[in-house]
Amino acid sequence: MKKLLSLLFCIFLMVSCQSQTDLEALKFGTDIESLLKGLEDKYRDNSTYIPFPEYKMTELNCFKIGGITLNNYSLYNKVYLAVDSYKNNQFIGYVVIIQDPEKEQELTDYFLSQMGEPIKKYINEKKEKGYLDAQYLWDDSQKDRLVYIYRHHTQTKKGNEGEEMALVRTIFMTIKKGLVATPDKNNNPENVKKLLEENPRAFEVLEMIKAWFPN
Question: Does the keyword Signal feature in the UniProt annotation (predicted)?
């Protein structure tokens, strides 16, 4: 019975994702209402990386990036599609969270080969310990977008035998240039005022991403 259910589930996935959406091909300002209607696995949520309304999906096999097919390697793999509002559903960016080591490396290589020199970069690597903490940020004027990658690799012990296991969590984010976030209503107005006095551009998305980098 379990095998039959698994087979039916796989058939459903193949039928529902016959046509994969290339996130790199989505144009900013596109109404993605029809795309959303074709996705069974979606709900309103927020990745915390893009300060705008988002739809979250965990069935990554419906998507690809630059021709690279995504997969459902882990329950923690996620796709977020960001929109200007839940009413208009105009596409403004995406966040993809990957824990598959091979797919993560393939996507990283893709962006590094496509984007050229980043405007900000941070790399802290200890190869002998399997540790990596890295960030990249590109200001892509040609495609009117910002591209951000955060890579985090660690090693941990697996099972009683103490076998080493790699843990990977990488964030790939693309968002339209020039967007400005609105301060949360719960923020103390005095704190917001002080922040803007220190940096009048503090709520511009580009400035927010730059603030994620270590000083």
Answer: yes
Scanning 50-203, the segments in alpha helix (DSSP H) are 101-115, 189-198
Task: Look over the chain and give the mean of its residue pLDDT values, rounded to a whole number.
Answer: 86
Owning domain of residue 22: 15-210
Q: Where are the alpha helices (DSSP H) in 29-158?
A: 33-37, 101-115
Q: Whole-model pTM?
A: 0.86
Cβ(89)–Cβ(32) below 8 Å: yes
Kindly state the tokens that stand for 66.
């630059």
Residue-wise DSSP of 111-133: HHHHH-S-SEEEEEEEGGGTEEE
Is-contact 205 146, C-beta < 8 A? Answer: yes
* 3-state helix, strand and coil shares in percent for the chain, rounded to the nearest 5: 30, 35, 35
Structurally, how many domains does the chain consist of?
1
Asked if 51 contacts 208 with a C-beta cutoff of 8 angstroms, the reply is yes
Q: What is the per-residue pLDDT across 98-114, written as a single tens digit (0 to 9) for each?
A: 998 899 999 999 999 99
